[in-house]
Amino acid sequence: MPTKGPITKEMIINDVVAKYPKTIAVFNKFKVDACCGGGFSIETTAKKDGVDIEVLLIELNKIASSK
Fold first, then answer.
1. Dihedral sign from CA coordinates of 3, 58, 27, 65
2. Which of 3, 27, 37, 62 could link 45 by a cystine bridge, Cβ 3.0 to 4.6 Å?
3. At a CB cut-off of 8 Å and minimum separation 6, what does 26 contact?
């Protein structure tokens, strides 16, 4: 089931971090390469790093929707 929220798996990591700076902590927690992999989509980088994309998106969207 796709995750609903402002952040989707197709989004580029650098764009997400620029719009939602606190998400860098989530990328770090999941050991997603937000530096060298930041120019790629969340899906591409998360797959390369062996991360469950749906769980990652849930956590990212929690941060993005918090004030």
1. positive
2. 37
3. 56, 59, 60, 63
